[in-house]
Design goal:
The complex is a heterodimer of chains A (442) and B (215). With 442 residues, chain A is α/β, with parallel strands linked by helices. Chain A is 41% helix and 19% strand. Chain A has 16 helices and 17 strands. In chain A, α4 crosses α5. Helix content of chain B is 82%, strand content 0%. Chain B has helices at residues 3-43, 47-62, 65-76, 80-104, 108-116, 121-154, 164-172, 179-208. The chains are: A alpha/beta (442), B mainly alpha (215).
Chain lengths: 442, 215
Amino acid sequence: MSETSTSRTASTSGATATSGATPTSGTTTGATIELENLTKRYPGHPSPAVDNVSMEIKAGEIVIFVGPSGCGKSTTLKMINRLIEPTGGRIRINGEDVTDMDPVKLRRKVGYAIQASGLFPHMTVAQNIALVPRMIGWPKARIRNRVEEMLDLVGLDPGEFHGRYPRQLSGGQQQRVGVARALAADPPVLLMDEPFGAVDPITRDHLQDELIRLQHELHKTIVFVTHDFDEAIKLGDRIAVLREHSHIAQFDTPEAILTNPADDFVSGFVGAGAALKRLNLTRVRDVEITDYPTVTVDDPLQEIFNKLRSSNTNEILLLDKRGRPYKWLRRGDLMRAKGSLARAGTLVSDTVTRDATLRDALEAVLMDSSGRVAVTGRRGEYTGVVDVETLMNSVHELLEADRLEAMAHRHDLEELRAAQTHAEQEGVGGIVEGGVGGVKKA
Amino acid sequence: MNFWEYLGNRHQQLLTDAYQHASAVFQCMVVATLLGVLIGILTYRSEWAGSLATTTTSTLLTIPALAMIGLLIPVVGLGVPPTVIALTLYGLLPIVRNCIVGLRGVDPSLVDAATGIGMSRVMRMVRVELPLAWPPILTGIRVSTQMLMGIAAIAAYASGPGLGNVIFRGLGSLGSKNALNQVLAGTLGIVVLALLFDAAYVLIGRLTISRGIRV
């Protein structure tokens, strides 16, 4: 990853670095995963299902494998915990070679969450979560506390859900329990195989937000398989776009893939609207928010008049008693108000928070007749306004920065590849791996 | 002597026969269940082994009970041994078949999940696959028991234990004053026993099938 990565990636890796030194609340943080020339051949098939995959996954990052169905992304994932035994290559977790270790022991140290939760229907929620801790022999009291803790962590009330059976839960709740079970024994690595594939779009969105929140607390190394590129963009610190035989088409940050897809395959996969998708990666707090003249409902009418007259805008924002945006007042509105504000102005229909994505902000701005939207803080209080111009300027700056970064990155990659070919021609042999954060173009 | 007087007179002996009948069926069912589930576990993964197990057991079932017991007499003698062997063999089919069907019906993604979170093969079988396949297996056991109740009556032919003795005695002396009563008492006794066993299985089902998968 280059130094000039965006704030999101930087903050994640930064947080990892600090918590790596001082683990919070006794949890294990992520471990590195290295795949080296990983290959899977099935007998009777001429071409390998997974062909010579090498990559390095850093501790505490979320890496997404994304690609069309049948490209071998799931197979690659399942080789990490050796649900599928590789026919060639090595796997190292935290530097330790796990290719030949007892797979049962390995899997107890690697969390595993799958599509449709994979909960055992004949066990209660608590029994499901307690499985791995019981297998590795935790004492009973510790397991009981851990189950409560995990339910709390994934946002389910322990008292209410403890004794329920999976079929008494909604799809989203099942998926949360599935994640809780995967994390119960506090593994440094979490493998997720299309975990949100079987839930409805709204719940999926919710679960994705939850996963991001969890990861902020836990800093696990997460490998996540999906065929949904938007999901990949939303969750990934880095995305590996895979084509047939699990060849890596591009392995980079979402920003870089969106603005600088490596080839036609990747750009085809990114799909239309890359620039719009890019807006999902930046938050309102990262762009310039303009200040706007405001008054509160408690201010006397005369003061509101004066303020509106002295300001250079046509409008003024009226805040309610708790400082939340309430109404937009135009000059004309006040003329007609005649001593009462009750009927004057237009109600504020939409606001965005500082954590909203630029895409949300753009949507709100486009829906607004005057092309601006109020930005609110944590409790809905007014903090500023975003309008079309500032948004446009910010987006242009962003895209420009991305393009520069991507060009620098491509330059590095080409140098690396040149060196590689040179080495091969010289007969020194061997593949230069992981030169630029494990990037290896197929 | 009418039927009720007959019952009053002979209840001591009828109860003994009924007890022996039930006990023979119960013991053979225990053996058949253990054997059947074991065969199921060993064969369900492979297509041909599973078919072989079901075909063999269903072929066994087509042998007439009388012929089977008759054929066993020269080999193992009279009395209890031919009864136990015949009943156990007949009891196998529904259990083996339901066990294979049940184990094959376990959602593969759950097996995958069980392996993925680090269960060994034995643990996966005991904690996940068997509990999930248990409802069909229990149904198989129930069907087997019903069947064995009837077949056990024929064991009397090899002077085995049970209510069959009463029936055969009645059939052997047709025309005498108690013949009909004997046949009737034996048959009704078997029906009552079968119903009692069935009730017991319902209870066992309530106790052993997890609430999470009960229909």
